[in-house]
Amino acid sequence: MKIEIPSYVSVVMNVLCENGYECFVVGGAVRSALLSFPVHDYDLTTNALPEQMKQVFRDFKTIETGIKHGTLTVMSDHHPIEITTYRKDGGYSDHRHPDKVEFSSALKEDCARRDFTINAMACGTDGKIHDFFDGRKDLENRVIRCIGIPEERFDEDALRILRALRFAARLNFSIDEKTSDALLSSRELLKYISMERIRDELTGFLQAPCAPQLFARYMPVFETVIPELKDCTETEKKDMVKRLENSPADPYVRTALILNSLAHPDQIMKRMKFSNRECDIVMNLLKLKDRETDTPSAIRRIIRDLKTEFARYAQFVCAMDESKDQSAMMKMYEEIVERGDCCKVRQLAVNGNDLVAAGLKGRAISEALDLLLEEVIDQKLPNDRTALLDYLKQKEKADCSASE
Fold it and tell me: How many angstroms separate the CA atoms of 348 and 370, rounded?
């Protein structure tokens, strides 16, 4: 099988080749193409040194942000193409980045420094695959396997531990036995990895349908990055995995399902550098998890307080409690939306200006709006301007009489 390379990529490759250099598509693009997956990013590798690349592409728009590591970005038909000089890596004293970058003149040496066999294939302008480590065979057998000695690969870059799990989950591949053993025995090296990178790999992992089974199988790895998991009983862990299996591959839902059993989930999310928006959504799901969901009024209250899509909330609570009927919840929600029911303060027929005109001040305005919304949600009052203002007048009279 040969790979078809888009013209905007082949143009760049041909410029190097016409100037006497080698150039290959490498890594994830080759893997995805062989799996018949869409390819979004093409990374190139070459024996041209950085200064030689700059000279060759002097008539192109280029970006030199990675030039000290041997990477030049070339713009081709509005597409950024990263080209990196062949490298051979030395030591990795921080278990993440090579201590120094050594350029190489051999494609095989460059492929040998990569993580897994399926990511170490290269493709020339002719579409021919260069496969030094049986990556194609592992693709066919659906196996994640480290290049060379797995312990050494994980010691070089501990993030590869989570990358192996993400690839296995995303592709529904098994993990080679030696790679699996090394993955578990090397897990403490993850303490050298930044929380941002761990968070990103974990989020990508949770978006894969097969994640729950791998989460259970490699629990010790996840206990390393989320130590609070160690405090869970075996029963709690089994329940957690079962709920993950019952959930869609939504990272917010699955993060909430994991954190539900752990103490101080908000602190865990902050420690892992989740964004404020991500924290708000997950914590909101956890806050509303025990709400009644059997009546239209209950659904309207959830809509009032929800900070994400209702469908996501329904997926979450139904994964938490199998007795809940997701179809019935969604039907009520859709009917509420179709009718245009008032569920939020901004939908009320009165606003703050109306209440100021009615004589209310300060905090009394927001309290009155919340009260009116509660009455409308319960359908004790129609969402009608006159009816709402009359209700407030009557309540004020009643409160005055009660205080006399």
Answer: 10
26 and 98 in one domain? yes
Residue 116 is classified by DSSP as B
Pair 42, 29: CB distance under 8 Å:
yes
Q: Phi and psi dihedrals of 95, rounded to 5?
A: 60, 25
Same domain, 194 and 99: no
In a domain, 328, yes or no: no
Sign of CA dihedral 399, 400, 401, 404: positive
Full DSSP string of 138-160: HHHHTEE-BSS-HHHHHHH-THH
Are 323 and 396 spatial neighbours (Cβ–Cβ below 8 Å)? no
- Domain membership of residue 273 (yes or no) is no
Say how many C-beta atoms besides its own lie within 10 A of residue 385's C-beta.
13
Residue 78 located in a structural domain: yes
Type of residue found at 388 = L
Distance CA 74, CA 9 (A): 10
Q: What is the domain extent for residue 186? A: 142-251
Picking from 251, 278, 297, the residue at the C-terminal end of a domain is: 251
Name the amino acid, one letter, at 379: Q
Query: Whole-prediction pTM value?
Result: 0.89
Residue 213 and residue 161 in one domain: yes
End-to-end CA distance of the chain: 90
Look-up of token digits 């409160």 = 399
Task: Locate 140 and state its tokens.
Answer: 């066919």
Same domain? For 179 and 146 the reply is yes
State whether residue 88 is helix, strand or coil: strand
Residue 397, domain CATH: 1.10.246
- Per residue of the chain (404 residues), what is the pLDDT tens digit? 678 899 999 999 999 999 999 999 999 999 999 999 999 899 999 999 999 999 999 999 999 988 888 999 999 999 999 999 999 876 666 666 666 778 999 999 999 999 999 999 999 999 899 999 999 999 999 999 999 999 999 999 999 999 999 999 999 999 999 999 999 999 999 999 999 999 999 999 999 999 999 999 999 999 999 999 999 999 999 999 999 999 999 999 999 999 999 999 999 999 999 999 999 999 999 999 999 999 999 999 999 999 999 999 999 999 999 999 999 999 999 999 999 999 999 999 999 999 999 988 999 999 999 999 999 999 999 999 999 999 999 988 776 666 55
Q: Is residue 302 part of a domain?
A: no
